[in-house]
Amino acid sequence: MPPKNSVIPLRITDINNLGFGVSRDADGKVVFVRDTADGDLCEVKIIKSARDYSVGRLVALLEPSPHRAEPHCQAHGCGGCAYGAVTYEHELWLKRRTVMAEFKKAGLSVEVGEVRPSPSYLGYRNKAQYPVARGADGVPVIGFYAPRSHRVVEAAHCPLTPPLFGRIAEEIRAHAVRAGVLPYDEEDGTGLLRHIYLRAAKDCREVLLTLVVTRGEYPEAEALCRTLTQKFPMLVGILLNVNDAPTNVILGKRYVTLWGRPYLCDTLADVTLELAPAAFYQVNRDAAEALYRHAAALAELRGDEVLLDLYCGAGSIGLSMAGRVSRLFGIEIVPEAVECARRNAAAAGIKNAVFAVGDAAATAEILASHGVSHPDVIVLDPPRAGADARLLDTVDALAPSRLVYISCNPATLARDVAYLTKRGFVPGPVTPFDLFPRTGHVESVVCLTRRLDNELRERMN
């Protein structure tokens, strides 16, 4: 067993979705090495030695893998880009393998298609939430948290975001220095500026800036707004979000508008959307549009169906299908998002849509209040934790003929599909979409159809 600080040669044989190359030392113990690609032969310094595994740091590359790519980022240690050391083609292969492995683990034999690539694998993010910390020299540090810590790694100019985001963040940093604005300190609770939150429409035609602060005022706010709007005319609003709680949650509940409007507008799948800071919206707009169009095709809508959109956010998925159904119901627990969805429907002239605030598992009661016993089609797009048993039982009781499940977590998707197959649903092919290039995340969509045996027919009648 190589001791800590020893340097050993290793052949990397695999790479996991956290971005660590995987190898084994001479004793057969697993060694994880960041910034490596499967196939690399390298010298590795052991920096951690636990009972069941070791962690190493790349010292020298002796023989590069055919999958190795030149690094696209100089910010080492933020942990955001799991696949920064491999080609994009190999990343897509790895992600498909991940989805296949999760369904196999869940005991399901389903077809998993090729991963649909993102139109761009750099500069695609329309949203960034930069934590702000106090640097050793007193200058605010803007970037992202290192893995499993709240140490901020300098990365204002992240290659996954539009270059504009970094320039705006730098301007805010310069103003903070001039105005004596102190970053928030998690240890003692002092300081003002916690996060810089930027959200953009397609091609940065509109940009919304939210400064997350510990109180509802900002030093020299008028001067900041004047400088930012002169240098960045695509800004449509500058907000404060007040969060004075000692919590890891980024956004508080109260907003103060310093300038402009408290939302931006973007168009997705032919629907114009109004997006408040708290409203859910996919971070990769162009790839999400391709995914939504595929989801609509899977739904096989004829025009007479009742469509239920669970976890509807600002209504983007449901509204993109509203013209092909008789009635649309959207359920979302975030009130600000529901307000956005209602305004989006009104602005688009969509009159067959109802959006309600509520827990997704309470959907049956919400539908019943509108005289609907069960929807024909359900679109389910839950957070990474997936759907709990209560919600899946609700879906089962609603007895839709088709369920289009969109997921950002292959493990919980496979788990939930396995649960539903035991209740009469039959999964079709799974199609992965790469909405998060360079990271370890992959989106997937699958349509489950209802097997109408005698017992199920009785429940529906």
Coarse structural class? alpha/beta
Radius of gyration: 24 Å
Quickly count the domains.
3
CATH superfamily of the largest domain: Vaccinia Virus protein VP39
Instruction: Name the overall outline.
Output: globular
Helix content range? 10-25%
CATH-derived topology of the largest domain: Rossmann fold
Tell me about this structure.
- The chain has 461 residues and is of the alpha/beta class.
- It has three domains: 7-68, Nucleic acid-binding proteins (OB fold (Dihydrolipoamide Acetyltransferase, E2P), Beta Barrel); 101-118 and 284-460, Rossmann fold (3-Layer(aba) Sandwich), CATH 3.40.50.150; 127-262, OB fold (Dihydrolipoamide Acetyltransferase, E2P).
- Helices cover 25% and strands 30% of the residues.
- It has ten helices and 22 strands.
- The chain has helices at 88-105, 163-179, 221-231, 285-299, 316-321, 335-347, 363-368, 389-398, 410-421, 454-460, and strands at residues 7-11, 14-15, 20-24, 30-34, 41-49, 53-63, 127-134, 140-145, 152-154, 193-200, 207-213, 235-242, 254-260, 264-268, 271-275, 306-310, 327-332, 353-357, 377-380, 402-407, 425-433, 443-450.
- The strands form four sheets. Strands 9-8-7-10-11-12-13 form a seven-stranded mixed beta sheet. Strands 18-17-16-19-20-22-21 form a seven-stranded mixed beta sheet, with helices on both faces. It has a six-stranded mixed beta sheet with strand order 1-5-6-4-3-2, with no helix packed on it.
- Strand 17, helix 6 and strand 18 (353-357) form a beta-alpha-beta unit.
- Helix 1 (88-105) packs parallel to helix 9 (410-421).
- The longest helix has 18 residues, at 88-105.
- The radius of gyration is 24 Å and the shape is globular.
- The termini are far apart.
- The model has no long low-confidence stretch (mean pLDDT 93).
